[in-house]
Q: What sequence folds into this?
């Protein structure tokens, strides 16, 4: 292991953040093995059960049941699956689109830079919640549509920040030297510029995963996220909201799950930012 | 200085025109790929296919997309945004009725976020070098990880259900007749001089505004803190110390002024996001604003409203950004070139 990587892993924030992310990732990966019930299985005779440790709890349902008698713990575990898939695929997609455009714009400038810059202006004039909502209206519901909407909304986060970073890096002497040595533009970008922007890229990716978890929860909460037969934390919150007096636990569990997932990614991102020593003041979400 | 600010605002507003055109075209295209037929939806279910076809022609739906957009744009410039399919009313009027409620909520929330952000940022900065520094940093990170709709639900749960202290639906108790002068309820109740009604409106506003304020303050806190760190590395702070000025005065009178500018830029961006965040908080608290109108329209596939409300959000964000730029110019003497 290279010294840089081991130094990064020694940072407390990275360790805790990565630990929580891995825990959620394992829940997502092993959902069918560890979930005590099928998340869609309804037990209409035992609806709105409290958690097992409450006076009239049932040991078969550790975190109780929802308004249709579905096991809350199993739905949380399958919800982690939805959240992690969205976090990983959507962030990687937004990163690819945004960073490719960012590198091209920062390196070449010119007309492409101008066009992408105006597109970013248009995107920035939409509050992200509104834009993703409008896109979901156009795309329809489903996990793949949620991922698509997040990519289409959040590529600007990567594009803006990376473009200004590439502008700075391109001015450095070693980039000029590479060009003088006869490197093609492609070689210069991939071998000289990308290694310099990579720490920023990884940090942004981690922070974007936190954003993706929130957006997925928001869309599912409004009823425009995943389909009704897929378990998602936002959907659980929307269901539980109607029974807030009878069964507050149903509301609190998915809320805790979202907070844990988002703070894990934020903690990891902040730890990476410190370890890589990247300046991120400009980018604040 | 006034001419500089005015010319900047003028330039920004002119630059906003092409952006708005693109935004409206984007909205138009996204909403036209929907698998719903606005013509069929605007007629009773008993309509024949021939009637639907006639309605399609009348609504211009058989023409090319670009032409449809130009027709829509021409009407929009005359203030006609189409009739809502669900409410059977003019979409522009519906948006104009609900916009003040959302603006009122957003402005109150921003005041709360700004105050919390300022106090929190100064507090976090004062913790530097003490054993509590990391704790403060980690708590602000935890706060940052709680989005506005979760704050909305947490506060609803704590102060609406566990300790029923504050009302959590609508803008006013049903026993009051709502005065309608400007649409801004807090202002209206003062204008008709009804302190009891003003207080009722405040209690209804409290939970949604605090939820939004809490969600958007941690970012302001963290940026203010890191800007203060940057300012403290500069020579004039050391100079002020040598002149024997107290630490408190250095922080509040010297450093804060300089750290305020980057924070203000960020707060402007945050305000744009906060304005979008009102949508979720409005749904949670059944607050009759633009957000509830928009979500109802989305559920009913009410295209004219989605389009007009989406545009209203963008206009608001562009105006906010312009105002923040103006404020930045007023506060930053370096930019005041003649």
A:
């Amino acid at each position: 292991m290279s010294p840089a990587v081991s130094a990064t892993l020694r940072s407390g924030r990275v360790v805790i953040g990565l630990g929580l992310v891995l825990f959620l990732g394992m829940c997502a990966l092993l959902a069918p093995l560890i979930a005590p019930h099928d998340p869609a299985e309804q037990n209409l005779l035992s609806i709105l059960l409290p958690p097992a440790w409450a006076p009239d709890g049932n040991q078969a349902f550790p975190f109780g049941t929802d308004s249709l008698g579905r096991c809350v713990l199993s739905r949380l575990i399958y919800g982690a699956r939805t959240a992690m898939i969205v976090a990983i695929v959507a962030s990687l997609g937004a990163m690819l689109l945004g960073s490719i455009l960012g590198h091209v714009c920062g390196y070449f400038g010119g007309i492409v830079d101008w066009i992408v810059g105006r597109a970013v202006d248009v995107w920035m004039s939409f509050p992200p919640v509104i834009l993703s909502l409008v896109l979901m209206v156009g795309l329809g519901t489903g996990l793949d549509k949620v991922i698509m909407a997040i990519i289409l909304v959040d590529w600007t986060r990567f594009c803006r920040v990376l473009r200004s970073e590439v502008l700075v890096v391109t001015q450095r002497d070693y980039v000029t030297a590479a060009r003088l040595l006869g490197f093609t533009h492609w070689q210069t970008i991939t071998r000289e510029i990308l290694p310099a922007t990579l720490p920023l890229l990884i940090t942004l990716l981690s922070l974007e995963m936190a954003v993706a978890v929130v957006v997925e929860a928001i869309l599912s909460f409004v009823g425009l996220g995943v389909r009704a037969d897929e378990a998602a934390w936002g959907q659980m919150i929307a269901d539980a909201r109607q029974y807030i007096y009878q069964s507050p636990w149903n509301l609190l569990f998915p809320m805790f799950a979202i907070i844990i997932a988002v703070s894990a990614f934020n903690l990891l991102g902040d730890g990476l930012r410190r370890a890589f020593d990247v300046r991120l003041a400009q980018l604040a979400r | 200085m006034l001419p500089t600010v005015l010319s900047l605002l003028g330039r920004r507003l002119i630059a906003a025109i092409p952006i708005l055109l693109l935004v409206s075209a984007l909205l138009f295209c996204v909403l036209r790929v929907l698998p719903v037929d606005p013509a069929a939806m605007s007629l009773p279910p008993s309509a024949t296919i021939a009637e639907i076809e006639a309605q399609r022609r009348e609504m211009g739906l058989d023409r090319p997309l670009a032409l449809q957009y130009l027709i829509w744009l021409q009407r929009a410039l005359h203030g006609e945004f189409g009739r809502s399919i669900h409410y059977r009313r003019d979409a522009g009027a519906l948006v104009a009725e609900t916009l003040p409620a959302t603006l009122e909520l957003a402005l109150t929330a921003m005041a709360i976020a700004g105050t919390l952000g300022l106090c929190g940022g100064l507090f976090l900065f004062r913790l530097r070098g003490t054993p509590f520094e990391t704790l403060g940093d980690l708590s602000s990170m935890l706060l940052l990880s709680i989005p506005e709709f979760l704050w909305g639900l947490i506060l609803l749960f704590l102060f609406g259900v566990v300790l029923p202290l504050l009302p959590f639906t609508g803008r006013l108790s049903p026993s009051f007749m709502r005065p309608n002068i400007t649409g801004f309820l807090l202002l209206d109740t003062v204008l008709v001089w009804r302190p009891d009604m003003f207080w009722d409106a405040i209690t209804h506003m409290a939970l949604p505004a605090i939820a939004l304020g809490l969600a958007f303050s941690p970012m302001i806190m963290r940026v203010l803190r890191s800007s203060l760190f940057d300012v403290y590395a500069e020579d004039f702070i050391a100079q002020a110390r040598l002149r024997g000025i107290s630490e408190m005065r250095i922080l509040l009178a010297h450093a804060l002024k300089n750290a305020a500018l980057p924070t203000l830029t960020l707060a402007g961006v945050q305000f744009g996001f906060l304005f979008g965040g009102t949508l979720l908080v409005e749904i949670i608290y059944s607050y009759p604003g633009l957000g509830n109108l928009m979500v109802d329209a989305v559920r009913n596939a009410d295209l004219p409203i989605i389009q007009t409300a989406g545009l209203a959000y963008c206009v608001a964000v562009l105006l906010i950004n312009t105002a923040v730029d103006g404020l930045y110019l007023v506060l930053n003497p370096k930019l005041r070139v003649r």
Remarks:
- DSSP finds 13 helices and no strands in chain B.
- Chain B touches chain A through 57 residues (CB under 8 Å).
- Residues 195-232 of chain B form the longest helix (38 residues).
